[in-house]
Fold this protein.
Amino acid sequence: MVRVGVVTFPGSLDDRDAAKAVRIAGGEAVPLWHADPSLQDVAAVILPGGFSYGDYLRCGAIARFSPVMDSVIAAAHEGLPVLGICNGFQVLCESHLLPGALIRNDHRKFVCKEQRLRIENNRTPWTGEYATGQEIVVPLKNGEGGFVADEATLDMLEGEGRVVARYLDGNPNGSYRDIAGITNEAGNVVGLMPHPEHAVEALTGSGTDGLGFFLGLVGVLA
Amino acid sequence: MPKVVVDVILKPEILDPQGQAILGTLGRLGIAGVNGVRQGKHFELDVDDSLDDDAIAKVADTLLANPVIETFTVKRA
């Protein structure tokens, strides 16, 4: 079975749902503790949503220096697939595995809604299950979800096809260019503000549109 | 113990929603004439004499500030 690590930082909330999504997709979810540098031979890592370290200093700024992150950063540079969801996306930007930063929502309210997205890059190990241009609905919940970067970086991301997902039906948090998710140059690290792990079962969440992130990963590594 | 002060603020081109919220509140205080507010962070470090400027700059640049969106100044008190 494909082993997918799910990191728990102090304050992580959505680690269990991420682990459940991995299991529903047919993988083995391996809990990874923030203070333990061992990645336990996993084939991929998920940095989950939540409020690691209470968002103290800046969201993800302290989690980025965890012992487990030393290993994740090194492994990511070697090609390990990494998915950062919400707070995990913030940790990836603070770690400089992804460019840009996430700031307070422009309208200053915490947004919590079902959000329509367009998948624009299906060449990452996380998005291969989707068609380019496919529209999906997954929950979005964030207070600091505004993706920002300078114009040169934004143009580079667009030009290199590194925008993985874009918000549809209006911009929910002030993210530049309506960017909901991006990938690194090598295409193995993906940061996503919305929560695919909350859309993997018909009974709960907004439907099952998010399951593809996990099915795709398990499928490509199996 | 020498004190080091690091002040961090968002780069001018980055939207500051918290500053905007503060600006909006000034009106409710009955204060006119303030046209803009930017909110930053003020850190005070108690440091050993042996800690040199490079080490302090590293603390500021990698932890206290996110250089993607913030600038900082360092002052030794």
User: Anything to note?
Assistant: Chain B has a mean pLDDT of 93. Chain B has two helices and three strands. The longest helix of chain B spans residues 17-29. The domain at 3-76 of chain B is CATH 3.30.1280.10 (Mth169; Chain: A ,).
